[in-house]
Amino acid sequence: xxxxxxxxxxxxxxxxxxxxxxxxxxxxxxxxxxxxxxxxxxxxxxxxxxxxxxxxxxxxxxxxxxxxxxxxxxxxxxxxxxxxxxxxxxxxxxxxxxxxxxxxxxxxxxxxxxxxxxxxxxxxxxxxxxxxxxxxxxxxxxxxxxxxxxxxxxxxxxxxxxxxxxxxxxxxxxxxxxxxxxxxxxxxxxxxxxxxxxxxxxxxxxxxxxxxxxxxxxxxxxxxxxxxxxxxxxxxxxxxxxxxxxxxxxxxxxxxxxxxxxxxxxxxxxxxxxxxxxxxxxxxxxxxxxxxxxxxxxxxxxxxxxxxxxxxxxxxxxxxxxxxxxxxxxxxxxxxxxxxxxxxxxxxxxxxxxxxxxxxxxxxxxxxxxxxxxxxxxxxxxxxxxxxxxxxxxxxxxxxxxxxxxxxxxxxxxxxxxxxxxxxxxxxxxxxxxxxxxxxxxxxxxxxxxxxxxxxxxxxxxxxxxxxxxxxxxxxxxxxxxxxxxxxxxxxxxxxxxxxxxxxxxxxxxxxxxxxxxxxxxxxxxxxxxxxxxxxxxxxxxxxxxxxxxxxxxxxxxxxxxxxxxxxxxxxxxxxxxxxxxxxx
Length: 585
Ligand code: ASP
Description:
Elements: E1 18-30, E2 34-41, E3 44-51, H1 57-64, E4 71-80, E5 93-104, H2 121-126, H3 128-131, H4 135-157, E6 161-162, E7 180-182, E8 190-192, H5 198-206, E9 211-219, E10 231-240, H6 244-263, E11 272-274, H7 275-282, E12 296-297, H8 299-302, H9 308-311, E13 315-321, H10 329-340, E14 350-354, E15 360-362, H11 370-380, E16 387-393, H12 395-412, E17 423-427, E18 432-435, E19 440-443, H13 458-461, E20 470-475, E21 478-485, H14 490-499, H15 504-517, E22 525-531, H16 532-539, H17 570-575
Parallel strand pairs: 3-5, 6-9, 11-17
Antiparallel strand pairs: 1-2, 1-4, 2-3, 4-5, 7-8, 9-10, 10-22, 12-13, 13-16, 14-15, 14-16, 17-20, 18-19, 20-21, 21-22
Helix pairs in contact: 4-6, 4-16, 14-15
The structure holds aspartic acid.
């Protein structure tokens, strides 16, 4: 090694030792006779000192040529500092430099390499290798590493085997668009990048591997949002000879283990909530249960009292915001504006203030007397001092809008503390989802998900009512993962494809390999995949998975550092047998 120690390890016990350090110049303070340099590497910062009259003149001369981010190597003695810095682990000592060598100079970096940098997002992405030198980004990646290690340790301890599956495959129908790769050797044909290793992990169960996992890249060509990347990482798992309960237990175990090992937090057993209840009480299949404010349906007390907005509504539903009865006109107007935003879509907001003195003041006083409003309050479990916020309209969109309002109130009231973790399982998802656009059913999870055995007869009569053996892991309102018990029987799998509108030939052409495998002794099996980027960002207390990926893509799916995606040479296109569509003038 070019060094004897790292920049993070020397302390008062090393005083008088001669050491050699390497690293990057973080900061230089030249006070005339005295020069201090903060030297940084992955492990920390160590202060170097040079003094005219004590330090060799040629060393001082070299130090005058240094700039930020130069890579240097120094040799010298560890001495006790006069003014100590209790904030640094190395803050009691400094190095009296005897020799210095510039290993590589640096241009002035385009932004400061500090915890609070002056660089904008775009610039930092372009020079991501410099951004990665900063502590906040570095600690995110170290957290990621730690969580991957602990995941492997835990899964290995319960006999899971890590097996790699191919990246050049053919499309798996997970509901998103595939990224495709043209094949040079098979002109006109394309591989697809896996949206997940779904069919392969099922084949590994047929092959008898029993417990598989993989920390694996998956690819989905979707429109991007803050929490989406075109390539992302899953902790992907599959188990044989299991029921839903076994999978929930294994992965509740993993999640609890990670909380304990990585954050030293003990979490209680995860509550279970049916999909129907999640929609009914939270208007979302990923409820944030760090706080209450469950929905209260008010149809029976609010309808048929002459208020046409309620009378014509399929659903009147509200939440009781604790301690908000004192909201001003202005605050209430803001909330009304919020629910009327096009992306939320409510037509208006009704409020009822349950005053401390037991009286009520509402925006619908004309239609409802004190007695009726009291009824509402009782039904909602509201207490004096609370504010009832009520929406009305068609059931599904109204619940969705109230979900947004509930989360907004949770934010305003500081009830969504990122240091509090509230996991739960959402279970009993519907198997199918009707799509108005294509006028057919789609698999809500994926087509390999098994219906609940007792609901199989409904597949013909009322497919929309069939529940699946499918589950999601939700933490703090974020979908961390999902999975299902699979179909392992050829006839049922064929039936499922037919409900999804595949002809027998289409199903055979696309998934024959899987259905054929089911004829050679496929064990009952099921699995789950956890979104690793999301899990790490949740542990790191951030909403943005990008901050936890070493080289992420931007909002437009571009890597601005390597400038990708990019054009390819005409010869490459030729070789692949591809032609670009002519630009239309
Ligand atoms: N392949 C599924 C997904 O990526 C997870 C699973 O069903 O195991 O969402």
